[in-house]
Amino acid sequence: DQQVKQNSPSLSVQEGRISILNCDYTNSMFDYFLWYKKYPAEGPTFLISISSIKDKNEDGRFTVFLNKSAKHLSLHIVPSQPGDSAVYFCAASEGYRDDKIIFGKGTRLHILP
Amino acid sequence: EAQVTQNPRYLITVTGKKLTVTCSQNMNHEYMSWYRQDPGLGLRQIYYSMNVEVTDKGDVPEGYKVSRKEKRNFPLILESPSPNQTSLYFCASSPFREGETQYFGPGTRLLVL
């Protein structure tokens, strides 16, 4: 049973436009959500997080939106840049001190010139 | 430089030959974890450790062992590797503070023949 779902294996976006990556979850106990970015031959790196008391968190070009009633979160990248081409993983846990973080399968983002 | 290191980075072995993948972090983090990444399956947690001498199973612990004798080290042991353990392995550590999350190592690519 997949608790964190990223239903789009890949996404292509024109440079300068908005990239929107989606993530759905099934476990209503999740209340801390994270996005990681991964380049080939490197480990994932933390991008941005959001706790369930918020519905939006922004960090520069990256914004994460959380819709708890729909059990859905999204990552917006504006404007998209060539260096954003990577695999993005959505992850969730029951609190930021939870010992288990559940990852989605990832979405490969291609930024087109 | 704050980092998580893994050795070796690449390993080819044969079925049944015991191997150890080392993981070390220099950030004095309490929490450490091992993941495997497989195509179409994303990142799946193998084992994690909340502190020295405290370890617990993740989602896919079968065929793996870990130990946490020191805070900085968290080796992953495959007593009798099998071909289905061919994967990309990541070690991670975390200070467990809100706004901070897991820091990943560069990965170890393992091929079991």
Features:
heterodimer; A: 113 residues; mainly beta; five-stranded antiparallel sheet; 53% strand; B: 113 residues; seven-stranded mixed sheet; 50% strand
- Low-pLDDT residue spans of chain B: none
SS content category of chain A: mainly beta
Strand proportion of chain A: over 45%
Q: List the secondary-structure elements of chain B in sequence, H or E.
A: EEEEEEEEEEE
Calculate the mean pLDDT score of chain A and round it.
92
Summarize the structure.
Chain A is mainly beta and about 110 residues long. Chain A has strands at about 5, 10-15, 20-25, 30-40, 45-50, 55-60, 60-65, 70-75, 85-95, 100-105, 105-110.
Verbal overview:
The complex is a heterodimer of chains A (113) and B (113). In chain A, the strands form two sheets. In chain A, strands 2, 4, 5, 9, 10 and 11 form a six-stranded mixed sheet that branches. The mean pLDDT of chain A is 92. Chain A is an all-beta fold and 113 residues long. Chain A has strands spanning 4-5, 10-14, 19-25, 32-38, 45-51, 56-59, 62-67, 72-77, 86-93, 102-103, 107-112. Chain A is built from no helices and eleven strands. Chain A is 0% helix and 53% strand. Chain B has strands spanning 4-7, 10-13, 19-25, 31-38, 42-51, 54-57, 65-66, 76-78, 87-94, 103-104, 108-112. Chain B is mainly β and 113 residues long. In chain B, strands 2, 4, 5, 6, 9, 10 and 11 form a seven-stranded mixed sheet that branches. A four-stranded antiparallel sheet of chain B has the order 1-3-8-7, with no helix packed on it. Chain B has no helices and eleven strands. The mean pLDDT of chain B is 92. The A-B interface holds A 6, 9, 34, 36, 41-46, 49, 51, 89, 91, 96-97, 99-106 and B 4, 31, 33, 35, 40-45, 48, 50, 56, 58-59, 90, 92, 96-107.
